Amino acid sequence: TQATCQSLTSRWDSGSGNVVSANSLSAIAKKMKPVYLIIIFLLISCHLFQKEKKYFEVIAKSGLILRSGPGQNYNKITTLPINTSGKIIQFIGPTTYIQGKKGLWLKVETEQLNGYIFSGFAIIHENIESLNQSRNYKFFPKFKGIFQFTNTDLTKEEFTKQFLEKFIVFESDLTSETKTILDNDLYKIELISAKNEYSDYQTIFVLNKKEKLNYFPEINNLHPKSFAENSKIITGFEYTCYNCCAIPTDTISILAENKLYTLPIPLNDTLASCDLEGQVKTDFSQLRITNKNEIIIQKTIYDCSTDPKCSQAGAEDNCKPTKVFSDTFLLIENPYSNPNVFEFDASVVPNNILIQFKTGRTAKTNKNLD
């Protein structure tokens, strides 16, 4: 076992990481008794065993902290969301307990980051086949403002009827309407409307042709406006109450191969400003596509409430935000296949991610909707 191997190797490894070579052990073995030969055999086997690549997978619902060293006293790099996986570089003993969980510290790497995690909140996979098999039974988790589409057994007609009934309580003269807005090899997307002369409530109904499953977004009133990145991204607005009185929120929906999810993020860059009451009118947001086709988003929210310029005459021109409430980066690995989402505070975002963000491109719109 792993524990046995660690116990054996600790007897022969001074801490430098240099285990006695097989040739040296062979020469020594000629002078030793049979019992020592057994120990040497186990030692060599364990040394080879430890060279095999193993993989981890986060199982903690709240995520698992990635640290700069093997201990809780080391700095936090980020929080790895549930189902995050990567390679294990090293097992670091001794066994310890954290929040009632028994485990070792692991030196690990993901596609973007290296660091240390506690194994008590992760599954250890013996090989890549085991990890891939586990992935096939996982769903993309909800993660801080990122919402997965809901799978439904309803037909398009049944869903349209339910959608109409949801809003007809407020306006009895609403009628339903459906329109195909995308039909490609993977997805067929229908725009569902409940409308009258003054109002138009909308959402989308998605058929995954490969899985033969239907989906709809976890948003009551989603108005799609365009497609981007070869129709892998839908842009639009969410209206949180009636579309005639609510302030629209920019959203994007990403159509991965077997996962669909929505983010309250605009596709295009925005500039922050304040209104005359000292509230944030528009936050600062940028979305970039890297050369690996990953998505990196910077989102800064400002606090305008303490800015004295906002209460002065002519504030429309001078009321610019100065106090940052929060500044974060989101990295979406494999956004169109097996999305994996990381969030970083701007003060600790890894330099390689900053470089990719700065050298990335803006998303390309390929189709506007009427």
Overview of this protein structure:
The chain is an alpha+beta fold. 19% of the residues lie in helices and 40% in strands. The N terminus is likely disordered.
Strand order of the largest sheet: 8-17-16-15-14-24
What is the SS-derived class? alpha+beta
Binned, the helix content reads 10-25%
Low-confidence residue ranges: 1-26, 44-51, 136-143
Beta-strand portion reads 35-45%
Tertiary shape: globular
User: What integer value in Å does the Rg equal?
Assistant: 27 Å
Largest sheet: 6 strands, antiparallel
Say how many strands there are.
24
Number of distinct helices: 7
The mean pLDDT is 78
How far is it from the N-terminal to the C-terminal residue, by CA? 63 Å
Brief description of this entry?
This protein has 370 residues and is of the alpha+beta class. The protein is 19% helix and 40% strand.
Descriptive key words:
370 residues, 4 domains, five-stranded antiparallel sheet, SH3 type barrels, alpha+beta, six-stranded antiparallel sheet, SH3 domain-containing protein, 7 helices
